[in-house]
Design a protein that fits this description.
Number of domains of chain B: 2
Helix content of chain B: 55-70%
Radius of gyration of chain A: 24 Å
Oligomer: heterodimer
Radius of gyration of chain B: 24 Å
Order of helices and strands of chain A: HHHHHHHEEHHHHHHHH
Number of helices of chain B: 17
Strand order of the largest sheet of chain B: 2-1-3
Shape of chain B: globular
Distance between the termini of chain B: 48 Å
Structural class of chain B: mainly alpha
Helix content of chain A: 55-70%
Largest sheet of chain A: 2 strands, parallel
Chain lengths: ~450, ~450
């Protein structure tokens, strides 16, 4: 602990930094995140190794083994096997069992479907990182977006007293409702931050809880599907649904009489996929945010406010407007994540909807160093991890919570990248540190 | 007319008062039925009882010490009228300082009182029980706020209090359960079944304290040694806590058979607990609640009356000056953050050993963040933070209280209350509160 005296190398400013062009710029950027992931997964493997459930191992018996430690060492090969099967389970869950080719499309589609909200929510958090803000409220914004879109997608024709609306009106309206509801949930903490100095971390978390209660209230009350046994909203109208990309025709008896659209219809079970147009929207948003951040004055303002609010104020930028705008964009993206889940995947909103996406998106934004393009691989990795976790649990009985531990470790290693650099002896590159506006007040 | 914080808070108060009076009016109007034999909304009365706890022991039906019958509608109208007038004067006078927080707290407190009266219209409520519940539920929030104060006064922002509490709750319970099994085997001895098994519970509390300290050590290590942004570091702690506790619970705690079935017991302090009203509020609690009261005043003493406190405040306000007079800033910060984590560990023990016995995923439900708000509300002072905690816990207590009555506000809105109040308080107070100057800044020589 007493290493404070040795000031790390990067704190001493080099006399004249020479701009060097690395041969593979993206690799030198990505090496630390990749090693962080590797280290976190290795630690996860050690945790699995130690804590394998007893039903997968020969039971501890005092007459066979001298002591608990003897039992531990004599079951080492067994433990190794289970640990390996945990990770092969993780892989086959995410990318399919490669000995059975028919499982591959389904698994990859599941991974992509899982990654869709991660891309959007990760983008949402990345935008606020750029503005020097820390949005922990993606969860609440996503819930509000889902609520807004389901309200329009399931109930809008009733407001006008018609049976159904054409898709050209209904689908954009549903998307817009979700985006606006999410944006509203982002603007509130943004405004509070800019005007009163209330720290956005606390306010967004409070708003997460409030959004949960609002959802609970609506789904048990006004929006409840009276005919369903589950607590859920009615199915949305087919004209408000995002089309699936390739799947079998829907069975109207399972979806409240709605026949949801798809681009390609198939009869082959292997190609009956859940992947929907939400992923396309997510990729479009990645491009849009990249453009906004790197090619527009607004993006420059956001980045300047994040890097140095005093300089931004001196240059005459509108700090309040920028902070509120960044939080609004962020909320809109997170709301879009919820929207795509509702109108692309689930077609209704259940009382048990999202869990922990807010924290996941933080991890993804940190992994990607808030670079919009890098969000895609980070989110895909995350989606694969989440998709595979289910298969891993079936294989080994290891709880899905292992993934949460791995996730926290990844964030830790990314945030404190010196740990990784120290382990693997990598030199510090220039820049690339995230800075936040600190302190509680203005 | 410039829009300022004071005016904003005044407007908000007026808005809340007007909404409240209309809601009460509406809801009582719906309650007038043939059965209730009440002709108009002015006919409702709410009774507030102060039971005689000493006599209740012998005879549960003992008459209360006092029973105050308040005309519901008139009382609420008076309260709301006063709030509107005070809010109006706030808007007109636009005071520079000093009036915003008191007005806001009175809006919240009187608003809660009105909601209570509204819920028990035509019914009666036990005041001492309600207030004692406020103190009880305020315990984890207040202890968490103390943890936050120790960290922030030394210049380290600690957003990870929630995570520290959660991990401490999990491992405190695990320590109690495992040690009970180690000491007693499969079943408690006959003597222990009726009495309280102190040993495992004390081990549990110690386990929680150690766990909290370890999580805090990680936070300190990341934010001091590696200079990670302290908000990120705290968030890492929070996420890690969710993972570790969930993993531990599903992999070990659910399968673990422990003979221990009860948590910390109620400890009435003899004759003191029989004082009407004051007894139940102050002298009839479980151990950690007493500990909380001691800690609040203890920390107040240590922070403002000892060398340690002076140094702690110095490294949080002006670390360079502290360094100049020979205080080792970073070592002191390490030590204080770990102390803060241990305090948060006590709050965690409250969740799994006192508030309820057992561990559930996410059982801290945002209280760690609410305690940060309480800390800010109390301007980084232990006593003020204690007051803030009582303000927030009264929202919780009210929410639990009105569930027992046929109250026509949906329960979800009542459950939102603590979080909404936190938002309002944060928005209203922060600009007035000045955090320790070096809070959140890495100190480098």
């Amino acid at each position: 602990m007493a290493n404070e005296q040795q000031a790390p190398a990067e704190t001493q400013k080099p006399a004249e930094p020479k701009p060097t062009k690395p041969s593979l710029p993206w690799l030198s950027e990505a090496i630390v995140p990749l090693l962080a992931i590797l280290t976190a997964v290795l630690i996860g493997a050690v945790i699995v190794f130690i804590s394998i459930p007893s039903n997968k191992l020969p039971a501890f018996d005092l007459s066979l083994y001298g002591s608990r430690s003897d039992w531990f060492f004599s079951t080492l090969p067994e433990r190794l096997r289970v640990t390996l099967s945990a990770f092969t389970g993780l892989f086959s869950g995410a990318f399919g069992d490669w000995s059975k080719p028919s499982t591959i499309p389904g698994a990859i589609s599941n991974t992509l479907v899982e990654s869709t909200p991660y891309i959007l929510a990760g983008l949402a958090v990345a935008v606020t990182f750029k503005a020097g803000l820390f949005n922990v409220g993606a969860e609440g914004q996503l819930l509000m977006g889902a609520l807004g879109s389901v309200a329009v997608a399931a109930f809008m024709p009733q407001w006008f007293g018609v049976a159904s609306l054409p898709a050209i009106i209904h689908l954009p309206a549903a998307l817009l409702a979700g985006v606006l509801a999410g944006a509203m949930w982002g603007i509130i903490p943004g405004y509070l931050r800019a005007k009163t100095g209330a720290h956005e971390v606390i306010t967004t978390i409070m708003l997460n809880y409030i959004a949960l209660q609002i959802m609970d209230y609506l789904i048990n009350g006004v929006m409840k599907d009276k005919s369903a046994t589950l607590q859920r909203t009615p199915f949305i109208h087919e004209n408000a649904a995002l089309p699936r990309i390739v799947s079998k025709a829907t069975d109207p008896s399972l979806t409240g009489g709605q026949a949801y659209p798809r681009l390609f219809t198939t009869t082959d079970s292997a190609w009956d996929l859940r992947i929907h147009m939400g992923i396309v929207i997510a990729f479009l948003m990645v491009g849009l945010i990249w453009w906004l951040m790197n090619r527009t004055p607004k993006g420059f303002e956001i980045k300047t406010v994040g890097e140095n609010p005093e300089a931004a104020r001196y240059a005459g930028m509108n700090i309040t407007g920028t902070v509120v705008g960044a939080m609004g964009i962020s909320g809109a993206l997170a709301g879009l994540a919820g929207t795509s889940q509702v109108i692309g995947l689930e077609y209704n909103l259940k009382a048990v909807f999202s869990s922990g996406l807010g924290f996941d998106s933080l991890a993804i934004a940190l992994l990607a160093k808030s670079n919009p393009i890098a969000i895609v691989p980070a989110a895909l990795f995350w989606g694969a991890l989440r998709t595979g976790a289910g298969a891993m649990q079936i294989n080994t009985g290891i709880s899905i919570n292992l993934i949460n531990i791995i996730q926290a470790l990844v964030i830790m290693f990314i945030a404190a990248d010196q740990i990784v650099r120290w382990i693997y002896r990598i030199k510090q590159a220039e820049g690339g540190k995230i800075t936040f506006n600190r302190s509680w007040g203005k | 007319m410039k829009f300022t914080r004071a005016r904003g808070v005044g407007l908000l108060g007026i808005f809340i008062a007007i909404v409240l009076i209309f809601a009460v009016n509406n809801s009582l109007g719906n309650k007038i039925t043939e059965k209730s034999k009440i002709q108009s909304i002015w006919g409702f009365t709410s009774t507030i009882r102060i039971p005689d706890s000493a006599k209740m022991k012998e005879d549960p039906k003992a008459p209360p010490v006092a029973a105050i019958e308040l005309p519901t509608m008139i009382t609420i109208s008076l309260i709301c009228g006063a709030l509107v007038l005070a809010g109006g004067s706030l808007i007109a006078k636009n005071p520079e300082r000093g009036w915003v927080a008191p007005y806001m707290s009175s809006v919240i407190a009187l608003g809660f009182f009105s909601i209570l009266l509204w819920a028990v219209a035509n019914n009666s409520v036990d005041l001492s029980d309600t207030l004692s519940r406020v103190v009880r539920l305020g315990t984890p929030i207040a202890i968490g706020a103390l943890a936050g104060i120790v960290c922030e006064r030394s210049g380290v922002v600690n957003i990870g209090i929630e995570g520290m509490m959660l991990t401490a709750a999990c491992f405190g319970y695990a320590a109690a359960a495992i040690s009970a099994r180690a000491i007693y085997g499969d079943a408690l001895p006959e003597s222990a079944v009726r009495g309280v098994v102190w040993m495992p519970l004390i081990i549990g509390i110690l386990g929680a304290i150690v766990t909290g300290g370890m999580m805090a050590a990680l936070h300190a290590w990341l934010s001091i040694r590696f200079k990670v942004d302290q908000v990120i570091s705290g968030t890492v702690i929070n996420i890690m806590a969710v993972g570790i506790t969930g993993f531990t619970r599903t992999n070990f705690l659910l399968k673990f058979e422990s003979p221990l079935r009860t948590g910390l017991p109620q400890m009435p302090l003899g004759p003191l607990a029989d004082i009407p009203l004051l007894g139940p509020i102050l002298f009839d609690h479980k151990p950690i609640t007493y500990l909380m009261i001691l800690m609040v005043f203890g920390l107040n003493f240590f922070l403002f009356r000892t060398v340690w406190g002076l140094r702690t405040r110095a490294i949080g306000e002006h670390p360079k000056a502290a360094d100049t007079v020979g205080i080792n800033v970073n070592r002191m910060r390490y030590r204080n953050v770990i102390i803060g984590g241990m305090i948060a560990g006590v709050a965690g023990a409250w969740f799994s050993l006192e508030g309820s016995f057992g561990f559930d995923d996410g059982m801290t439900s945002g209280q760690g963040f609410i305690s940060l708000a309480a800390m800010i509300f109390g301007k980084w002072n232990p006593i003020g933070a204690f007051g803030g905690s009582l303000l927030f816990s009264s929202a919780d207590a009210l929410q639990l209280k009105v569930q027992a009555y046929s109250f026509d506000l949906p329960s979800q809105f009542m459950q939102m209350l603590p979080y909404v109040v936190t938002l309002i308080v944060l928005a209203g107070v922060i600009g007035r509160a000045r955090p320790p100057a070096a809070s959140g800044k890495v100190y480098e020589k």
